[in-house]
């Protein structure tokens, strides 16, 4: 009886795996359609420049408006897209959308640097690099106002190829940012080889840094280290005013998080930018 029960459990688990697999296959088919139908949206989360209290850059974050399932966040489909070779087309879509939005915003008087997340597998992909070069040749947007956010894992899968590719992107004018810094395992001597402009301290260190002494010390020393290497620092995941005040005190360059703004649709971002620049004129 015990064995039968165990088999029963096993069968149910296998069935669950199977249906999960089927769901993933369906989802990937739908993703192909979504990419051409406009269901893949790009939202933008501001990075606040602390020295000027202004929003001069944003991070592009992808969202999928699924007709039946509603809104699907990137964590639910980016890993699948990576495993099934759809991450290239998806990232190209995000980059193209971002560059078009950038041009529209400039016409409205807002110069905004846009950061795009580039997955591990893409950093050293020759196909992706070709696509990026083709987009830049179209002369839409300004590569010096584009940033690629990469993670340490991105650069560590094939360190030499990643370093070389990042230098080529840098030569095209694109800025390179190290995302989720502090969660990976790269050595300082390796980091030094990357053509970084910016380091983003991971939310897990930032979130409670104003309350937790160790987190605070870690954030402080990371900011000092980055500055001594000539890098700008972004703190991500700021959810409270006290945390923002703490990071200001530490001399952090940019702040990002729900306390400043959630990721916004392009139209809402423009409204925020306009409202803030009106404030500047009044002040
Ligand atoms: P990430 O690049 O580290 O982006 C930050 C994530 O934290 C975003 O989640 C953002 O909405 C969220 N976040 C921002 N501020 C706060 C805060 O104050 N508190 C909390 N709890 N969360 C905050 P999102 O949009 O769900 O994206 C998750 C991850 O998916 C991103 O992490 C990034 O790695 C990936 N991703 C998003 N868009 C793209 C894309 O276009 N391409 C690729 N390859 N990856 C993407
Ligand atoms: Mg990011
Ligand atoms: Mg991040
Ligand atoms: Mg993070």
Structure commentary:
This is EAL domain-containing protein. Residues 24-277 form the EAL domain. It is a single chain. With 283 residues, this protein is α/β, with parallel strands linked by helices. The mean pLDDT is 90. It has twelve helices and nine strands. Helix 3 runs parallel beside helix 5. Helices cover 52% and strands 19% of the residues. Strand 6, helix 8 and strand 7 form a beta-alpha-beta unit. The termini are far apart. An eight-stranded mixed beta barrel has the order 1-2-4-5-6-7-8-9, surrounded by five helices. The longest helix has 36 residues, at 2-37.
Please give a quick description of this structure:
52% of the residues lie in helices and 19% in strands. The protein is of the alpha/beta class and 283 residues long. β6, α8 and β7 form a beta-alpha-beta unit.
Entry keywords:
eight-stranded mixed β-barrel; binds ligand C2E; binds magnesium ion; 283 residues; 12 helices; alpha/beta
Blueprint of the fold:
Blueprint: H1 2-37, E1 40-49, E2 54-66, E3 70-72, H2 78-83, H3 87-107, E4 113-117, H4 120-123, H5 126-137, E5 146-151, H6 152-156, H7 159-171, E6 175-181, H8 188-191, E7 198-201, H9 203-206, H10 213-228, E8 232-235, H11 241-249, E9 254-255, H12 266-282
Parallel strand pairs: 2-4, 4-5, 5-6, 6-7, 7-8, 8-9
Antiparallel strand pairs: 1-2, 1-9, 2-3
Organism: Sphingomonas aracearum
Protein name: EAL domain-containing protein
Domain EAL: 24-277
């Amino acid at each position: 009886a015990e064995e039968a029960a165990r088999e029963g459990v096993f069968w149910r688990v296998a069935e669950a795996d199977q249906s999960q697999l089927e769901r993933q296959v369906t989802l990937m088919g739908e993703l192909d359609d979504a990419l051409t139908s406009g269901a893949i949206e790009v939202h933008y989360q501001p990075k606040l420049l602390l020295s000027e209290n202004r929003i001069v850059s944003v991070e592009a974050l992808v969202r999928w408006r699924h007709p039946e399932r509603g809104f699907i966040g990137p964590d639910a489909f980016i890993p699948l897209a990576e495993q099934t070779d759809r991450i290239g087309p998806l990232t190209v879509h995000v980059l193209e959308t971002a560059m078009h939005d950038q041009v529209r915003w400039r016409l409205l008087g807002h110069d905004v640097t846009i950061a795009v997340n580039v997955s591990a597998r893409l950093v050293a992909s020759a196909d992706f690099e070709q696509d990026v070069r083709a987009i830049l040749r179209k002369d839409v947007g300004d590569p010096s106002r584009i940033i690629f956010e990469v993670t340490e894992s991105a650069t560590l899968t094939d360190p030499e190829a990643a370093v070389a590719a990042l230098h080529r992107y840098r030569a095209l004018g694109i800025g390179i940012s190290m995302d989720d810094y502090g969660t990976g395992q790269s050595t300082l001597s390796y980091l030094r080889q990357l053509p970084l402009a910016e380091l983003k301290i991971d939310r897990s260190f930032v979130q409670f840094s104003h309350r937790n002494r160790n987190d605070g010390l870690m954030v402080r020393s990371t900011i000092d280290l980055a500055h001594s290497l000539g890098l700008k620092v972004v703190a991500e995941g700021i959810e409270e005013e006290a945390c923002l005040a703490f990071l200001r005190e530490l001399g952090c360059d940019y702040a990002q998080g729900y306390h400043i703004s959630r990721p916004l649709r392009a139209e809402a971002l423009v409204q925020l930018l306009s409202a803030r620049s009106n404030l500047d004129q009044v002040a």
